[in-house]
C-alpha cells in the first residue's frame, strides 16, 4: 500500500479486555495492519475514541472528515503511532495516570475527613492536630493562609 494514498478508513480492533488493540488501515480494498499494542496511549490522544469506547463494541472506525482529506494517509497514521509509542510519551502518560490516581485518592480522603469532621459537633480538624470550631471561620482562614504562605516559602 502506498503510504501517501488517502485511506478509506482506519480501524482499531480491540481485544475482549479492551486493553490492547491492532490498528488496521484500508485503502482501495487493501487491508494492512500498521500497529498493535496497548490501547490506552491511543485513547489518551483521541477524544473521538474515548467517546466511542463508552458505546461498547470491539472495533472503532476512524473515517476521514471528507473526501479531500489528503492528510488522512498511512504515513500520517504511522507518524501518529510512532509519536504515541515513544518512550517519553509513554512515560508521560504513565506519570499522568499516577498523578490522577493520587489526586483522586487524596480528594476521597479529604472528603472522608471533612464528612467525619462535620459530624463531630461542628468542629473541623486542623493539620497541626488542634480542633477548631467552625464558628471561628475568620481565625481559621487566617491560620490556613499562614500555613499556605509557609509552604510556598519553603518550596522556594
Brief digest:
This protein is α+β, with helices and mostly antiparallel strands and 156 residues long. It has three domains: 9-85, no CATH class; 87-119; 121-156.
**Rg (CA only):** 25 Å
The strand count comes to: 6
Helix percent band? 40-55%
Number of helices: 5
**Class computed from helices, strands and strand pairing:** alpha+beta
Q: Proportion of β residues?
A: 15-25%
Mean pLDDT: 76
Organism: Stylosanthes scabra
Protein name: COP1-interacting protein 7
Give me some keywords for this one.
156 residues, alpha+beta, four-stranded antiparallel β-sheet, two-stranded antiparallel ribbon, 6 strands
Describe the structure in your own words.
The structure is a single chain. The protein has 156 residues and is an alpha+beta fold. It has three domains: 9-85, no CATH class; 87-119; 121-156. 49% of the residues lie in helices and 21% in strands. It contains five helices and six strands. The strands form two sheets. A four-stranded antiparallel β-sheet has the order 3-2-1-4. It has a two-stranded antiparallel ribbon with strand order 5-6. It starts with 8 loop residues before the first strand and ends with a helix.
Amino acid at each position: 500500500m502506498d503510504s501517501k494514498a488517502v485511506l478509506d478508513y482506519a480501524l482499531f480492533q480491540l481485544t475482549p479486555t479492551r486493553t490492547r488493540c491492532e490498528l488496521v488501515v484500508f485503502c482501495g480494498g487493501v487491508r494492512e495492519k500498521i500497529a498493535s499494542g496497548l490501547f490506552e496511549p491511543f485513547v489518551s490522544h483521541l477524544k473521538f475514541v474515548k467517546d466511542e469506547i463508552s458505546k461498547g463494541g470491539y472495533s472503532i472506525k476512524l473515517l476521514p472528515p471528507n473526501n479531500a482529506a489528503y492528510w488522512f494517509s498511512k504515513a500520517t497514521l504511522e507518524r501518529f503511532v510512532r509519536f504515541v509509542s515513544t518512550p517519553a510519551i509513554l512515560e508521560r502518560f504513565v506519570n499522568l495516570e499516577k498523578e490522577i490516581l493520587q489526586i483522586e485518592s487524596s480528594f476521597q480522603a479529604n472528603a472522608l475527613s471533612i464528612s467525619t469532621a462535620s459530624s463531630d459537633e461542628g468542629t473541623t480538624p486542623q493539620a497541626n492536630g488542634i480542633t477548631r470550631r467552625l464558628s471561628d471561620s475568620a481565625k481559621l482562614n487566617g491560620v490556613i493562609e499562614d500555613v499556605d504562605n509557609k509552604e510556598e516559602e519553603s518550596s522556594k
